Amino acid sequence: MTKLVYLINGPNLNLLGTRQPELYGSATLADIEAGCAKLADELGLGLSCFQSNSEGRIVDWIQEARGDADAIILNSGAYSHTSIAVLDALIAFDGPVIEVHMSNIHAREPFRRHSYVSLRADAVIAGCGADGYEFGLRRVARLLGR
Ligand code: CA2
């Protein structure tokens, strides 16, 4: 049976491609999701994409993944640095979790260096721009035995 991956993006990532290209590149979120959907297909994986600016909706999708998805790729944006609620939801999920940041959070302001999500993530990808999502997908495929 086809394994399903949830790709979840958090606050302000809907603005990708409109501002700050020096930090986040010029691809839009729709471009990134389309590239990941194509790669998922090549890897024999299913992909469902989500984006919200709301912490609660992100928690809801992570909970929904418990009964529906085999892995999660997550860029929870600024909530990565603040949200114990997102961490707790991830802890309740059994499959692989890959944390993605487009920028190198370790080369920025000190408050971005800590991520609650990293406490649960099986891998963390930072500083690879939009490619980081595809690297995450390849890692998920490997972890799911694809
Ligand atoms: O590097 C990343 O992917 C981040 O998760 C992006 C978050 C930031 O709060 C994290 O520290 C690192 C911010 C995303 C904001 O994206 C924008 C894109 C275009 C225009 C404005 C914001």
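^ CA2 complex. The chain has a mean pLDDT of 98. The longest strand covers residues 3-9.
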